[in-house]
């Protein structure tokens, strides 16, 4: 029952993360294309700042239970925060130079990077054959679709590829950390506080802060409200990501990201457009679709295999219990028979002893008159 509940929680967390991720991609694209706000580091600084303020406000009102930030925990979560900051900035930069559909296709290479790094760094075992084939299809589809993109932007694709690597490392490190801490809000707080100084430094060094100041001066208040709403949605996305990694694994989280990218691609074709209508692009997207569906099938088969192994272990344990009971029963029988034999032996010895005693007594009684006669004769003399 516990395993089934855990499985349902994992599916729900994965669906929640996928939904939030699709929503955020389109909201960020609206912010960049509609308002012309191409400042990814500023978006992340606002998002992290709001996250810290919101979590401490919830903690102060005792609506949620969050452990306080300590330097020890912050040091343990430093590397995930570094890779998170790098992934966020690279991903937003890539999205600003690509259409939503092709960005979704590119992000579907994350599962391959996650798979390889999990085997190399975390010493995880290789997944099943179906899972490997599905991830290869996802990656090949990405390459084919990218080669057919007529609006190819080298910087966009390069930053997208680097974003995939940093995201894979980030997810694996988060998975490793969640093995010792299962409080999702605490992980969110650690990530926000650790990454905020890094993002702020990048914002100042790059000169983006001055450009943002000029942009905000030229725009009206509705834009600032839109930016805050999108930052709040980003907080929800981060929470769903940690929740999904906590209840599933880094590989599953990355594949859920790939599946949401598929939905993102299909929706992007009919909304923002920008997809080159050629054979390679269509073939690449089709391969991505096949890989995503095959991964779902592979995970279903793996789950059935795990359930079957669980039943077999139960049967084996029951058989072992029966053998143990038989052994215990036979041991008890042997002990009983041994005790009976000992009792019989003791009884025989006791009878023998009694017989010997009676014989001695009898002999003593027969020898008594002689002794008396001798004594009388001596006295008479």
UniProtKB/TrEMBL annotation:
Protein's name according to its UniProt entry: UDP-galactose/UDP-glucose transporter 7-like
Keywords: Membrane, Transmembrane, Transmembrane helix
Sugar phosphate transporter domain ranges (all copies): 19-295
Amino acid composition bias (Low complexity), ranges on this chain: 335-381
Topological type in the membrane: Multi-pass membrane protein
Gene for this chain: LOC115225387
Localization: Membrane
UniProt entry tagged with the keyword Transmembrane: yes
GO cellular component, one term: membrane
InterPro entries to which the protein is assigned, alphabetical: EmrE-like, Sugar_P_trans_dom, TPT_transporter
Region Disordered, residue ranges: 326-381
Residues passing through the membrane, by range: 12-31, 37-56, 76-95, 101-122, 129-148, 154-173, 185-204, 224-244, 251-273, 279-298
PANTHER family: SOLUTE CARRIER FAMILY 35 (PTHR11132)
């Amino acid at each position: 029952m516990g395993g089934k509940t855990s499985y349902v929680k994992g599916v729900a967390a994965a669906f929640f993360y996928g939904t939030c991720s699709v929503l955020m991609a389109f909201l960020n694209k609206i912010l960049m294309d509609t308002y012309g706000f191409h400042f990814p580091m500023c978006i992340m600084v606002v998002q992290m700042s709001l996250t810290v303020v919101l979590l401490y406000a919830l903690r102060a009102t005792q609506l949620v239970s969050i452990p306080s930030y300590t330097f020890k925990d912050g040091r343990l979560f430093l590397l995930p925060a570094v890779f998170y900051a790098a992934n966020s900035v690279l991903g937003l930069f890539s999205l600003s130079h690509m259409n939503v559909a092709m960005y979704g296709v590119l992000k579907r290479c994350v599962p391959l990077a996650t798979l390889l790094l999990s085997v190399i760094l975390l010493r995880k075992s290789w997944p099943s054959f179906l899972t490997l084939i599905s991830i290869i299809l996802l990656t090949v589809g990405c390459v084919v679709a990218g080669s057919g993109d007529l609006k190819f932007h080298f910087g966009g694709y390069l930053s997208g590829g680097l974003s995939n690597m940093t995201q894979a490392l980030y997810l694996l490190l988060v998975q490793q950390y969640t093995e010792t801490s299962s409080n999702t809000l605490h992980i969110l707080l650690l990530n926000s506080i650790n990454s905020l100084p890094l993002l702020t430094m990048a914002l100042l060094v790059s000169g983006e802060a001055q450009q943002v100041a000029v942009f905000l001066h030229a725009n009206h208040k509705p834009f600032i409200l839109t930016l805050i709403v999108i930052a709040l949605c980003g907080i929800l996305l981060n929470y769903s990501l940690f929740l999904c990694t906590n209840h599933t694994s880094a590989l599953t989280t990355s594949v859920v990201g790939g599946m949401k990218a598929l939905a993102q691609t299909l929706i992007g074709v009919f909304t923002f457009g920008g997809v080159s209508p050629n054979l390679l692009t269509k073939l690449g997207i089709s391969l991505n679709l096949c890989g995503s569906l095959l991964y779902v099938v592979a995970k279903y088969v793996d789950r059935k295999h795990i359930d079957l192994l669980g039943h077999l272990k139960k049967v084996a344990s029951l058989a072992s219990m029966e053998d143990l009971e038989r052994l215990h029963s036979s041991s008890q029988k042997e002990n009983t028979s041994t005790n009976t034999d000992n009792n019989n032996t003791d009884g025989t010895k006791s009878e023998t002893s009694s017989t010997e005693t009676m014989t001695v007594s009898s002999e003593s009684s027969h020898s008594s008159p002689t002794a008396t006669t001798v004594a009388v004769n001596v006295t008479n003399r």
